[in-house]
Task: structure prediction
Amino acid sequence: MKKSVMKVKKIKLALEEVKHVSKGAGNSETSKKEIEAAQDKNLSFEDIKEFRKAITPKRIELLHITRKMKPKSINELVRLLERDVKSVLTDIHLLENLGLIYLNRNTEGRKEVIPIVDYGMINLEIVV
Result:
């Protein structure tokens, strides 16, 4: 029987400049290798206040629903979350910039944007 391995997103909380993951993550040209490389990089915040501002309960719920329900579009995610489109889009763009969610932009047919969360845990490391 094959053992399942859960992917982990690493976040480091330290007194330093905010570091973002690869700018390539999330665009239509992003390959699976680029996404995996971006996931291997640590994401850092200046302090706990900045972390709390970025990683809110609503955004954690968005990540969870995206991973578990695998919506086929942003509109489907909005319906699943029962939130307004504007606030969901704001959260998605922030999470995408942080490398916590990826957007697969379908350029053929109906131009759907599919949100992707392909890790199951966020590992928070606090530097003292």
User: Anything to note?
Assistant: The helical segments are 32-40, 48-54, 57-69, 74-81, 85-98. The beta strands are 8-13, 43-45, 102-105, 113-116, 121-126.
